[in-house]
Amino acid sequence: GAVVSQHPSRVICKSGTSVKIECRSLDFQATTMFWYRQFPKQSLMLMATSNEGSKATYEQGVEKDKFLINHASLTLSTLTVTSAHPEDSSFYICSAGSGAFSYNEQFFGPGTRLTVL
Amino acid sequence: AQKITQTQPGMFVQEKEAVTLDCTYDTSDPSYGLFWYKQPSSGEMIFLIYQGSYDQQNATEGRYSLNFQKARKSANLVISASQLGDSAMYFCAMRGDYKLSFGAGTTVTVRA
């Protein structure tokens, strides 16, 4: 299967700082990438969908100025949590799809655990 | 709007026995797909099995089988011959509206 990587796997930062998380498709071109957030023992909640070269589409209730998403190439998407606060501490997972029906099959990254002190 | 419901927060199963995880869904879209994922404590999402809404037969992948009952809008996962490594959280998901929607998940603990 296709491989998706995320970096970093864990990050601890101070409140007020910004954190960037990278999501890379290693062996295929991802036309669409998805960003999810997961709190402990809870389900994955879709934050936004990004298509290469265009602006991300955010889900209702997700602040686009807070969670900046860039999908500049077919193999890389980044999520920047700006001015992070303790309530932003969570597990962030990206997934990537290729082809016209990117939602048909998504390949997930291993996730990034963010802790904001 | 789509909705996925998993009503079992946690389950215990004895090693080598089978376990069924419930999943019901609701959608008005005639074309949809149903997925099951496994999430161990490491956090990675592992794809297990897929069922398309027009598939005539129930999907099977090794020890995993999906009991698809379209009229009842259910897509239960059956894990046969449970192993200790099956202990994890399991999510049912539905593809629709160009995205995946996930259920709340079921934690499975396999006992030796």
Question: Would you summarize the structure shown here?
Answer:
The complex is a heterodimer of chains A (117) and B (112). By secondary structure, chain A is mainly beta. Chain A contains no helices and 11 strands.
Question: What does it look like?
Answer:
The complex is a heterodimer of chains A (117) and B (112). By secondary structure, chain A is mostly beta strands. Chain A contains no helices and eleven strands. In chain A, strand 5 and strand 6 form a beta hairpin. The mean pLDDT of chain A is 91. Chain B has 112 residues and is an all-beta fold. Chain B contains no helices and twelve strands. Classes of the chains: A mainly beta (117), B mainly beta (112).
Head-to-tail CA distance between termini of chain B: 41 Å
How large is the radius of gyration of chain B?
A: 13 Å
Q: Which secondary-structure class do the elements of chain B indicate?
A: mainly beta
The percent of residues in helical segments of chain A reads under 10%
Helix content of chain B: under 10%
Count the strands of chain B? 12
Classify the beta-strand content of chain A into a percent band. Answer: over 45%
- For the largest interface in this structure, which chains are involved and how many residues does each contribute? A-B, 20 and 19 residues
| Strand elements of chain A, count | 11
Distance between the termini of chain A: 37 Å
Radius of gyration of chain A: 13 Å
Tell me the overall shape of chain B.
globular
